């Protein structure tokens, strides 16, 4: 586990999570990619190990199966043995993902990192400021949306809502103590509603209030977004993987997604070049780094990852958005909120890019075509290591 700091380790909230020095994963589980209809060599060997296949009714079973090993059987040893078998079947751990908010450790990194705007800060009300584009269906796959936030003007006056799966928000509801990542999805959805008020907006709950999920759960959530007609999917989360084999379940879903759809993902927040951060490093996913627009000229945010695979950078420091009501107590000083927040991270640069894509999608045009156009037009210019810079009006001064 990452070294101790004053900021809590989200993995401590889930006793199933393990760390092997490079990757976080769920204890005792292995995933197996689709095997040929003939002899199922890997599955048969797992049965010899007394492993049990779970989620056999999983909608993704045509892509990947999930197995639980018997007590005492090492995941790493099992994978080594399975990978030595003949054939091309892919096997791997059930990776764990984290929300890409600043100061949350990105999976696979050795410690927590700080940076600009490292805690949420109460902020004034925000109002819609975007316009244009046709009605585009956007799904935020995250912690869900706080039901109480629907009374805030930005959501209340928004014309087009799909299903918003609820965010649990609190670790102690009676005391209104906000969980480590409670309300994260509400912030993300609020940024989209602010800058693209014409979108058809939905929320799918996949991250816990601690901000984590696993590969199979996330893959199913993204598939539900596509099945629900989402044209753009916002993934303000990610995981580090070891070597060339990315997470099997989400890889399968993204490789078979509907034509013309767009996936936008956060680049991560550990202020380093990162070669293996998923799903942002996929060539068919728009990877978003963060810029600090509080200074002129804007500069890359101190916490933002950098990599050759980063496509675009956007404002990501102290973005104003909708939030929840309660007290967030994880920083040096507890902060009390009344529905609005200013927060930093590639998590919040990502929905800004989603909103810009949606707002520039014209009649008869796919979101993918609009994204391709947007990312090649002025006022973009390059920021080495951070992709093309998508500028934005500054937020109000706190």
Overview of the structural elements:
Helix 4 (184-195) packs parallel to helix 7 and helix 5 packs parallel to helix 6. Helices cover 19% and strands 27% of the residues. The radius of gyration is 20 Å and the shape is globular. A hairpin with a 6-residue loop joins strand 17 and strand 18. The chain is of the alpha/beta class and 398 residues long. The protein has two domains: 10-96, Alpha-Beta Plaits; 97-389, Rossmann fold (3-Layer(aba) Sandwich), CATH 3.40.50. Strands 7, 8, 11, 13, 15, 17, 18, 19, 22 and 23 form a ten-stranded mixed β-sheet that branches. The chain contains eight helices and 23 strands.
């Amino acid at each position: 586990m990452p070294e101790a700091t004053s900021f809590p380790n989200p993995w401590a909230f889930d006793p199933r999570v393990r760390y092997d020095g490079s990757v976080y994963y769920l204890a005792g589980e292995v995933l197996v990619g689709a095997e040929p209809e003939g002899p199922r060599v890997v599955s048969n060997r797992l049965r010899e190990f007394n492993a049990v296949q779970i989620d056999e009714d999983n909608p993704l079973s045509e892509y990947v199966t999930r197995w639980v090993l018997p007590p005492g059987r090492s995941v790493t040893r099992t994978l080594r043995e399975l990978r030595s078998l003949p054939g091309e079947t892919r096997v791997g751990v059930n990776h764990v993902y984290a929300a890409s908010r600043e100061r949350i450790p990105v999976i696979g990194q050795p410690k927590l990192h700080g940076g600009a705007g490292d805690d949420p800060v109460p902020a004034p009300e925000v109002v819609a400021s975007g316009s244009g584009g046709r009605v585009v269906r956007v799904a935020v796959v995250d912690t869900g949306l706080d039901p109480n936030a629907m009374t805030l003007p930005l959501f209340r006056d928004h014309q087009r809502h799909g299903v918003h799966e609820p965010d649990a928000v609190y670790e102690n509801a009676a005391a209104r103590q906000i969980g480590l990542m409670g309300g994260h999805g509400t912030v993300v959805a609020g940024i989209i509603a602010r800058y693209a008020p014409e979108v058809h907006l939905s929320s799918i709950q996949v991250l816990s209030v601690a901000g984590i999920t696993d590969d199979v759960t996330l893959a199913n959530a993204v598939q539900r977004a596509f099945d629900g007609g989402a044209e753009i999917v916002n993934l303000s989360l990610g995981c580090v993987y070891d070597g060339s084999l990315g997470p099997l379940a989400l890889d399968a879903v993204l490789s078979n997604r509907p034509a013309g759809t767009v996936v936008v993902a956060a680049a991560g927040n550990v202020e380093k070049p990162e070669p293996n951060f998923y799903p942002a490093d996929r060539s068919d996913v728009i990877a978003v780094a963060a810029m600090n627009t509080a200074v002129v000229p804007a500069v890359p945010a101190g916490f933002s990852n950098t990599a050759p695979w980063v496509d675009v950078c956007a404002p990501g420091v102290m973005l104003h958005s909708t939030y929840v009501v309660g007290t967030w107590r994880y920083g040096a000083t507890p902060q009390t909120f009344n529905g609005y927040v200013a927060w930093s991270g590639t998590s919040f640069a990502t929905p800004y890019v989603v909103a810009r894509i949606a707002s520039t999608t014209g009649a008869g045009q796919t979101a993918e075509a609009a994204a391709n156009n947007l990312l090649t037009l002025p006022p973009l210019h390059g920021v080495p290591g951070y992709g093309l810079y998508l500028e934005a009006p500054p937020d109000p001064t706190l």
